[in-house]
Amino acid sequence: MGATAIVALTLWSSGHIAHTLRQEEQRKVELWSEAIVQRAQLVGYTEALFTSLRNEERDKADLMGEAYRIIQEADPGAPIDLTFITRFIQANRTIPVLVYKDSILQADINVAPSMRSPLQLDSLRDAMADRGSVIEFDQGLTLFYDQSNRFRDLQTVMDDIIHSFISETVLNSASIPVLLADSSLTGILRADRFGESDLADTLGLIAKLMEVNPPIALDLPGAGRRWILYDESIVLKQLRFFPVVQLLIIGGFLLLAYSTFSAFRRSEQNRVWVGMAKETAHQLGTPLSALMAWVEVLRSEGVAEEVLAELGKDLDRLATVTDRFSKIGSEPELTSGDLRAFVSETMVYLERRMPRAVHFNLDLPSSAVEAAFNPALFGWVLENLTKNAVDAMEGAGELDIHLWKESGRTVLDIRDTGRGMSRRVQRQVFDPGFSTKKRGWGLGLSLVRRIVAEYHGGQIVILKSEEGVGTTFRVSLPADSAF
Length: 483
What we know:
Number of helices: 12
CATH superfamily of the domain at 335-481: Histidine kinase-like ATPase, C-terminal domain
Strand content: 15-25%
Radius of gyration: 51 Å
Strand order of the largest sheet: 10-12-13-15-14
Oligomer: single chain
C-alpha cells in the first residue's frame, strides 16, 4: 500500500512538473512567433524606405536630364541665366550618368575610373538601357543613368537583412522544428530540424504542421508572401512522454526488485530443502544399517530365503532412497548405462508394489538404449511419475511406458488413464508446494523437473492431458547425454 502511494505521488509530481514546463515552453513559442511577425513588419518598413529612396533618385535623374535638355536647347544669343542649372548638374555626386549626342559620348559623370574605357562604358550604357534607365531628348540627346552607389550599398544591406531574418529568426529557432513554405503552401523553401523522411512527404508534413499550429504569414520584399510553419519543440515532445518513461523505469525497478527477492527466496527454499534432504538421509542411515543386520540374524534363524530376498529388495530400495536424499544439492555423477534395462527393472519392481488393478504396459526397444544418467536420481523420476499416475487413476487403469530414440535424443513417455488435469493445474503442477492432494507437500514433480533439467540437462513436459481421459508426461535427454 505504501509502495503504491509512493509511486502515485512520484508520478503526480513528475506529471505536474512536466505540465508546468510544457506551459512555459508554449509561452516561449508564442513570444517567438510574435517576434517573427514584428521583425517581418520591420523588414517591410525598411523596404518601403528603400522604395522611397529609389523614387527620389529617379526624380533626381529626371531633373538632371531636364537640366541637360535646357542647356542643350539654349540659344547662345539669348539672355538666359544657366548658372543654377549648371550648378545642379555639378552638384550630383551619387548618380552615375552617361550623356550621348547622336550615339557619341558627350560626358560621363560619377563613373568609376576603372570603368571608363570605351568598351566598359558601352557595356555600362547597355546595362542601363536594359534596366530602362534612359531619358531621350530632341536633337539626338540621350541620357543614361544608374542607381547611385549609396543606393546599391543600401540594397545590399537590405538583402542581408532579409537573409539574416530568414536564417536567424525563422530557421534559428532553438529546439523548434520550422520550415518556410511558398505562397501556395505546397512547396518547402527552407526547413530546419526535420528528418529526411518527414521532408519526403511535403504536402503531408505541411498539413500536419497546420493542424498543430496556425501558419505565420510573411510578406518579404522582392519575394512576395511566404508562410512559416512550426511544430512543437523537441523538449515539449519529450516532456509529454516523461511520465510514461518514468513509470516504465519505476516498473522496471520494481520488477528487478521482485525478481531479486524471488531469487533470494527460491535460494533460501532450496537451502532448506537440501538441508532437510541431507538430514533425512543421515537419519535413515542408522536404522537402515540395523535392518541389514537383522536380516542376517533372520537368515541365521532359518527364515525362508524367499522372505529374506523380498526384505533385501526393500532394504535396497531404502538404501536407494537414502542415496537420493544425500545427492540433493550436490552435482550428481552421470554414468553411461542401458536405460532400457534400467526402466524395465524399475517398472517391474514398482508393478509388484502397486494395486493389481493397475496394468503396466512397457513398450521398449528390442536393443539396448545407451544413455548417461544417474540411476538413483533417475529412478526417483520414474517412481514419482508412476506413483502420481497410479494416484490419478485411483488404483485402477492402464499405465503405458514407451521408450525410444529420436534425432539423437532419448525420449520416454509415461501415459495414464487417470482423471487428467485442467489448464490451470497444468500451468502449476511443477511449482514447488503445489499439490492437488489433501496431504501432499507439492515437492514430487518439482524435484522431478529439477533432476531432469538441472542434473541431466533434459526436459520434462506435459505432452497431453485431458480431464476424464488421462495424462502423458514426456521426458527427453539431450543429444550430449544420449549415446
